[in-house]
Amino acid sequence: MDKPSEAELELRHLRCLVAIVDTGSFTDAALELGVSQASVSRTLRGLEQLLGVRLLHRTSRTVSTTTAGVEVLARARQLLAEADNLVRAATTGHTRLRLGHAWSAVGRHTAEFQRRWAERHPDAELHLVRHNSPTGGLAEGVCDLAIVRTAIDRHRYAHAVLGHERRYLALASDDPWARRRSIRLDEARERTVVVDRRTGTTTLALWPEDARPATEYTHDIDDWLAAIATGRCIGITPEATTTQYRRVGITYRPLRDAAPVPVHLIWQPHDPHPATHATAALLTELYRERG
Hints:
By secondary structure, the chain is an alpha/beta fold. The chain folds into three domains: 6-91, Winged helix-like DNA-binding domain superfamily/Winged helix DNA-binding domain (Arc Repressor Mutant, subunit A); 94-164 and 262-290, D-Maltodextrin-Binding Protein, domain 2; 167-259, Periplasmic binding protein-like II (D-Maltodextrin-Binding Protein, domain 2, 3-Layer(aba) Sandwich). The chain contains nine helices and 13 strands. The protein has helices at residues 11-23, 26-33, 37-51, 67-92, 110-120, 185-188, 221-229, 239-244, 276-290; strands at 56-58, 63-65, 95-101, 124-130, 145-148, 158-165, 167-172, 183-184, 193-196, 215-218, 235-238, 250-256, 261-267. A five-stranded mixed β-sheet has the order 4-3-5-13-6. The radius of gyration is 25 Å and the shape is elongated.
């Protein structure tokens, strides 16, 4: 007999696995799927043969996932969700828009954007997706469009400038500078600045080569905030962070004499989402209205 190929994998295999795990037994899975218990057993066995791994530990009383089963189960749920979305979009005209971002969506515009989007585009369900990558998840395929504030590969992605955001200084709330209304950029070089190399907007290019601050590096917004809260360093960030990440122990102050940060919407030019231009138009409108 020829060895089964990946092409023979069907959604029924995945639905069977999910049903067994969710109901906790082959008997209950059969009831949920409307098939016989023997059919459930055959379908699971077929899936395990297709993948070449054991997915479940089975006893007379319990069912539990193997290490491989945990990974396959998570992916199965994603694939089934995508399949359901595909059917819904094809049969009802309802589409989904996944808007990615690395840190702070569109800052103080986020809530209003979600409200207006729901009012103007009820047939396009909006999902905000945070993904810790320079493209906010676009390169990884986890979103359809992304909000970015870092440098863009203009050869790879199409883009639109939505607006600009003022830079702010983030510091521990008990720092002496927290009592001031604003801080100058040249003063910041006197301190250690914590920088997120992966998705942050701060680089040493903000200062002259001969007057640059000491730096520490992190790779995530939570680590960045934790470092600042210790008081040993400060951070520089766009205004959006100040509204999306209000934390006890962290204070934000405007940074004077620093160029604003451009906010871009990016997308794949060869296959743009149908709502791309509507998204760009609404976000541009919000940045123009509210500064």
